[in-house]
Every structure is written in C-alpha cells, then in structure tokens.
Design a protein that fits this description.
Elements lengths: L5 E7 L1 H100 L6 H16 L7 H10 L10 H17 L4 H4 L1 H16 L6 H84 L3 H19 L3 H45 L3 E7 L4 E6 L5 E8 L5 E8 L5 E3 L5 E3 L2 H10 L7 E3 L3 E2 L23
Antiparallel strand pairs: 1-5, 1-8, 1-9, 2-3, 3-4, 4-5, 6-7
C-alpha cells in the first residue's frame, strides 16, 4: 500500500466557508468600485476626445474656408487681370481703328481732289458706317483695311503718282503690326520675323517705280499680319489656360495637403484616445497577467497578455481602428478576468491555510517537516518518519475548486503498533493519515473526505488508534 498514491478531497468547514464568502463579497465590491472608476475615467477621456475632434473639425473647416477664400481671391484677380488685358487690347484696337478711319477719310478727300467721283458716295457711306460702329465700341477688325483698299484701288481717275497712297497703306500695316503687342515676338517668333521681313520689303517698294511689286506684296503682308495676330491670340489664350491650369493644380494640391493633414490629425486623435484608454487599464491588466502566472493559470495569463499585446502592437503600427478595437476588447475582458483571478487567489489562500493546518497536524503526529515548494497551482510538502519513511504531500485544487490532498508514501510498510503494557492494536498508514485529517480544524478549518487509493478494497475503513495512544513504530 505504501507505494500507491493516496488522495482525499477536502471541504471547508462552515465557519471557514463563512469567512471565505465574506472575503468573496468584499473582493466583488472592490471589483465593482474599480470598474466604476475605470468607466468614469473612460467617460472623461471620451469627452476629451470628442472635444478634440470638434476642435479639429472646426480647424479643418477654418482651413477649408481659408483655402476657398484664397481661391476666390485668385480667381477674382485672374478675372480682373484678364479683363484689364482685354480692355487694353480693345483700347489699342480702337485707337488703331480711329487712326485707320482718319487715314481713309484723308484718302477719300485726296481722291475727290484728284477727280474720282464714281464711287466716292458709297465710300463715304461705308466710312460713316464704320465710324458709327467704332463710336459704339465695336472692334472693326479688317473692315478699315478693306475700305482703304477700295479707296486706293480707284480707277484711272485716281491714277498718277500714288506714292503717298502706298506710304499710307504701309503706315497702316505697320500700325497693325505694332498693335500685336510687345509680346508678339515671344508668342509667335516665326510669324513676327516673317511680318517684319515682309514689311521691310514692302517699304522698299513705296517709291514711284515699285507700284507693281508693292501691289503684289500687299496681299501677302495682309495675310501674314492676320495670321500673326491670330497666332498671338491663340498663344495668349494658351498662356491663360496654362496659368489657369497651374493655379487649379496648385489649388488641388493645397486641398490634398489639407485633406492629408486632416486625416493625419484624425489618426493622431484616435491613436491618442486608444493610448489614454490603454493607460487606464494597463496596470490592472498587467497585474492579472503576472498574478495568474504566479498562481499557475497560464490560460488566463495568456488571454489577457495577448489582449494587452494586441493593443500595443496596433499602436506601434499606428493602426487607429485596430487600436480602438483592441483596447475595447481588453476593457471588456478585464472585469471577468479579475473575477476569475479573485477566485484563483481565494483558492490559493485556501491551499495555503490547508498547508499550514496539515503541517501542524502531521508534525503533531510525529512527522518531521523537511520543507516544501510552491508550484503555483499546488503546494508540495515533504515529511519523514523516525523510521526513515517519507511522505510527499501535494495540496492541489480540484475541478470544482475544492482542495485535494495527495500522499505519496515511500518506505512505510503496514506495521503493528505496540502500545504501553504491551497492549497490541492494529494500525496502518491509512489510520495514521486519518488521525492527521481529524486534526485539520473541523468547522473552523478543513474536513477531508475518505482516503482512497487505487486498489483499495470496497468498504474498507482504517481502525482508529485508542485514545491517548502514543505512536511507537517497530517492525513485526
């Protein structure tokens, strides 16, 4: 029998159970108070986070309004600049039209003096019409030059030396060339150079001998000037479109920067909220992890440790959504984990009290205590008998939370105990341990159940020693 482990379940006595129940209620009240404090702190942090988000929203709105204001100012300035350029161009064209109309009027008067009368009336009516249109602010375009050509091309009545007419036509073309603006050479370099060359050639043919060549070149110059003016207008429009596109690109880039800054600020706010909430529960969570490991509950330690690690990893990775989810999960797990840990600590204290009672009871029965180990979920104690027999006793907790005693006995055969006056009584290891169990405190301590082992005969009970017998062990 001495080599077979012996075990006994233990229930707590009534008074001990009352004290333990009172301690359980006290711990439950403490847990509720802690959770209330944590809930209040979470509510305070939530209010702070909401206030920060509102300030960030207001700041983002202010920035958007500022960007919109700047864009409106830029658009208004751009519109004003374009309007000013157009006004300058219209004014310049109007002045050119007025000069051209004045020159045409002089040409018509010269034609009248030279005796040409057939078309003078129609020319004068056309001139009056153009002057009225100019007075209304209309741009006459090529109408002035068309009328000039009609006057210049009068028949034989206007024949003779027409050097002055050619000079006047040349002057009109040069004015049109100048009216293209100082940026013409930049916006249409080839057209500007061609017009300048053609005007130089036309200028060389204004003398009496150059009439034919002048007339031949005149149309080419007219066409070149029209094409040059159109190219410049297109170039200016292209520049305007480019400026507009660049401004729009800058505005879009500013909007992207604002959006990125707003997103970054929102991310920082969420991460800060998650970190602050973690700070509220981290000490308690770490305490659960450490204590559960000490008490031999790796499952509970791993559960809370993994939840705690999930929050820190999400914060390190700057994953705001995951950090909030993880910290909420940790907050939800913590109350139940603390409740389970309290039960673990009560069971641990129950084992410690049982260890103290068992050590006192066994030393009272003549055992020598040789030391023991705290193994987290159980205690292991070592005792020896004067004969050299060893008793290794484990105090553990069963699945139902009740203490369990397990004895591993070595070197202790069943013996006969000889009492004083040689009165022989029956004693066994079972009977000895039953006496130990009787000394564990009863209602104020622990009440072990029947001692069992593998192979124990059904219904067997140890015979008790006589009252007052002093254990003296001998071999048979």
């Amino acid at each position: 029998m001495s080599g077979s482990p012996k075990y006994s379940s233990v229930r707590v006595g009534a008074l001990y159970a009352q004290r333990e129940a009172a301690e359980r209620r006290r711990r439950a009240e403490e847990r509720r108070a802690r959770e209330q404090r944590r809930a209040a702190e979470r509510a305070r942090l939530a209010q702070q986070a909401a206030a920060r988000r509102e300030r960030a929203r207001a700041e983002a709105e202010r920035r958007r309004a500022e960007v919109a204001r700047k864009e409106a100012e830029v658009a208004a300035r751009r519109t004003a600049e374009r309007g000013a350029r157009q006004a300058v161009a219209r004014a310049e064209q109007s002045r050119a039209d007025e000069r051209g109309l004045h020159e045409v009027r002089e040409l018509i008067a010269e034609a009248q003096r030279s005796g040409a009368r057939a078309d003078i009336g129609s020319l004068e009516r056309r001139l009056a019409e153009l002057r009225e249109r100019a007075a209304q602010g209309e741009q006459l375009g090529g109408a002035v030059e068309e009328l000039r050509g009609r006057v210049v091309s009068l028949g034989p009545a206007a024949a003779g030396d027409r050097t002055e007419d050619r000079a006047a036509a040349l002057a009109g073309l040069e004015r049109r060339f100048s009216a293209t603006g100082p940026d013409g050479a930049t916006l249409d370099a080839d057209g500007h150079r061609r017009c300048a060359d053609l005007l130089d050639r036309l200028r060389a043919e204004t003398g009496p001998s150059g009439e034919v060549r002048f007339e031949a070149l005149l149309g080419t110059v007219e066409h070149a000037l029209v094409r040059h003016a159109a190219t410049i207008a297109e170039a200016r429009e292209a520049v305007e479109r480019h400026v507009l596109a660049e401004q729009e690109r800058e505005a879009a880039e500013e909007q992207r920067r604002e959006a990125a800054e707003a997103a970054k600020a929102a991310l920082e706010l969420v991460l800060a909220e998650a970190a602050e909430r973690l700070d509220v529960v981290r000490p308690a969570a770490q305490g659960v992890v450490d204590t559960a490991a000490d008490l031999g509950d790796p499952g509970l330690a791993d559960e809370i440790g993994d939840a705690l690690r999930a929050v820190t990893e999400a914060l390190t990775a700057r994953s705001a959504t995951e950090a909030l989810r993880a910290v909420a999960d940790l907050e939800a797990r913590l109350p139940d984990a603390e409740s389970r840990l309290d039960e673990r600590e009560l069971a641990y204290q129950r084992r410690r009290d049982l260890v103290e009672a068992l050590r006192d009871a066994m030393t009272g029965e003549g055992f020598a205590f040789e030391g023991g180990e705290d193994e987290g979920g159980s205690f292991r104690l070592h005792f020896t008998r004067p004969t050299g027999a060893t008793y290794e006793t484990t105090v553990a907790t069963g699945d139902d939370g009740s203490p369990v005693l397990v004895y591993q006995v070595a070197g202790e055969p069943d013996v006969t105990l000889h009492a004083p006056r040689d009165e022989a009584v029956c004693d066994t290891t079972e009977a000895l341990l039953e006496r130990v169990h009787e000394a564990l405190g009863g209602d104020d301590g622990f009440v072990p159940g029947e001692l069992s082992w593998d192979g124990k005969p059904p219904g067997r009970r140890a015979k008790p020693l006589p009252r007052g017998a002093s254990g003296r062990w001998t071999t048979p």
